[in-house]
Amino acid sequence: MDELSIYLHIPFCVRKCLYCDFLSFPVCGDGNTAENKHTGKSYVNLISPQKAAWVESYVNLIRDEIIRTAPEYKKYRVISVFVGGGTPSLLPTGAMRAILDAVRSGYRLEEDAEITLEMNPDTVTEEKLREYITCGINRLSIGLQSADDAELARIGRIHDYGTFAQAYETARRVGFANINIDLMAALPGQTIAAYGRTLRRVAALAPEHISAYSLTLEESTPLYERRREFSFPPEEEEREMYALTGTYLASCGYHRYEISNYARDGFECRHNKVYWRRGNYVGFGLGASSMTENVRWKNPTDGERYRNYVDALARAAEAGGSAGLREKNAEEFALQRLSVPEQMEEFMFLGLRMMRGVSGRTFRRVFGADMEETYGAVIGKLCGQGLLERDGERVRLTERGIDLSNYVMAQFLFD
Ligand code: SF4
Predict the structure, then answer these.
(1) Which of 91, 147, 261, 276 has the most neighbouring CB atoms within 10 Å?
(2) Hey, do 2-275 and 340-410 end up sharing a CATH topology, with the first three levels equal?
(3) Class of domain 340-410
(4) Residues 309, 329: Cα–Cα separation, whole Å
(5) Ligand 1 mean position to 132 CA, how many Å?
(6) Which of 26, 31, 28 is nearest to 43 (CA)?
(7) Whether the predicted pLDDT of 35 surpasses 60
(8) For residue 85, which atom of ligand 1 is closest to its CA?
(9) Is the pLDDT of residue 42 over 70?
């Protein structure tokens, strides 16, 4: 039976962080001016009354989408579920349970499936965390970003380090044995020394997994507008921060298994590896992306269009199936049936993100073609430049290749 992973998008946040261009909307207080923990006010169960009905109707929509499309995925067993956003931990636990119950009722969820919830430190209580466990959630991904309160305030996070540390300790106490902590480097005003302190504080907590990405300054964000107010670490320092992440976390027992992801043995993120290995996954909710059997598509990002889609799913189900609905509206769903060359490109540039690299044997099994015959010239050139290395039938990035990964990946695109 084929494997499937499920992504559930919950597009609500307390307020927008200043650097954020994800598809998410503030639902607490009056958006960007909402009070925060620094002023002594917690966001636990603080969805504003004006926004509560909207949140509730979204929960009903995503449940309907999950249930109505289920017949399409009968042949799969689900190995992972990732509840992301947004800030899914903002939802009342009853809503979270209802969404996960919909998955359970319609899909063959493996007993040992990895079920991750993205969590913002200032949105949970001990009771909420206990409820998550009874919902079947067995992995938390906590967005900390930095252990420095001034850095957190500069990027508009709602929490401080103390709030995070309390939430982390509570999560451990109630029984979560698999926790990821998200960090960010190259923050405004951040020094290498301050970043090192964040790494030390976080590693001392011994989470099972750490993700560490560099801040990308997106043009549509308030931080971009205000970029001249801050000094950002130069590229050279950003590279030093990246190198420090690898060496320090290695000394603490974490191995880097993807360009920006580190884990203790046995705790690599099962869900994210499906993306990099081009496994089948389906995304539910506003703007969620999917890829099954080499067909990619994306749900509408507009609320009204998303609602129309879920309504149409009900009619499609009555007419005997929902599989053709997206095909008929291919443009709206940016539906793309990948050609074999496109699949090969993805195989290379997604697979090379992982430190194990790509396997010639797998390439042959998937495409019935030889990786060296297809990409030998490119691989040879990049090996010559010290950006890739061969290891038996595998090819992987070198340290220098990681630094220049965008350049390396681009070489695998066919003209
Ligand atoms: S919590 Fe995450 S999704 Fe929400 S605004 Fe901040 S960065 Fe964006």
Answers:
(1) 91
(2) no
(3) mainly alpha
(4) 10
(5) 21
(6) 28
(7) no
(8) 3
(9) no
Render pLDDT for 70-118 as a digit per residue (tens, 0 to 9).
999 999 999 999 999 999 999 999 999 999 999 999 999 999 999 999 9
Q: Are 135 and 171 in contact (CB under 8 A)?
A: no
Closest to 408 in 3D by CA, of 382, 389, 376 = 382
- Domain range list for the chain: 2-275, 340-410
Report the nearest-CA residue for atom 5 of ligand 1.
Answer: 16
What is the CATH architecture of 2-275? Alpha-Beta Barrel (3.20)
Q: Which residue has the higher pLDDT, 47 or 4?
A: 4
- Closest CA to ligand 1's atom 3: 86
127 CA distance to ligand 1 middle (Å): 23
pLDDT digits (tens, 9 = 90+) for 330-373: 999 999 999 999 999 999 999 999 999 999 999 999 999 999 99
Structure tokens at 244: 């420090």
Whether ligand 1 lies within 6 angstroms of the CB of 16 is answered as yes
Cα torsion at 187, 236, 207, 154 (round to 10°)? -10
Over 90: is that where the pLDDT of 304 sits?
yes
Q: Is 87 in the pocket of ligand 1 (CB under 6 A)?
A: yes
Return the ligand 1 atom nearest residue 120 CA.
1
| Cβ(215) – ligand 1 distance below 6 Å | no
Strand locations in 54-199, DSSP E? 76-85, 108-119, 139-145, 179-185
